[in-house]
């Protein structure tokens, strides 16, 4: 009953920036956290960034810390991922997720997942 729709992916060159958006729709709900994960071809899905919805605490994977920034817009029920200084190794399908109850935001125990948006970074 909750839909998460990612947008903003695309094909860019190394060093460029992109901003991904994830809009929540459907059933109105309170959430504990929202996060971004990614999956590259032939690899497992991995944690990228997360944010505690109310408190605003943020979490980042070591591989993106200092380059990516997660934020949220309460009025729009939307979470963003600003990606700067993109590298070819950032190429992946990016998924957003929402957790309704307290979890470790860095792990994958979220309740809802989006369909993903492709990010491709060329060298």
Oligomer: single chain
Strand content: over 45%
Number of helical elements: 0
Radius of gyration: 13 Å
3D shape: globular
Properties at a glance:
single chain; 123 residues; mainly beta; 7-stranded mixed beta sheet; 4-stranded antiparallel beta sheet
Give structural notes.
By secondary structure, the chain is mainly beta. It contains no helices and eleven strands. The strands form two sheets. Strands 2, 4, 5, 6, 9, 10 and 11 form a seven-stranded mixed sheet that branches. A four-stranded antiparallel sheet has the order 1-3-8-7, with no helix packed on it. A hairpin with a 5-residue loop joins strand 5 (46-52) and strand 6. The chain is globular and about 40 Å long.
Per-chain topology:
Elements: E1 2-7, E2 10-13, E3 18-26, E4 33-39, E5 46-52, E6 58-60, E7 68-73, E8 78-83, E9 92-99, E10 112-113, E11 117-122
In short:
With 123 residues, the chain is mainly β. It has no helices and eleven strands.
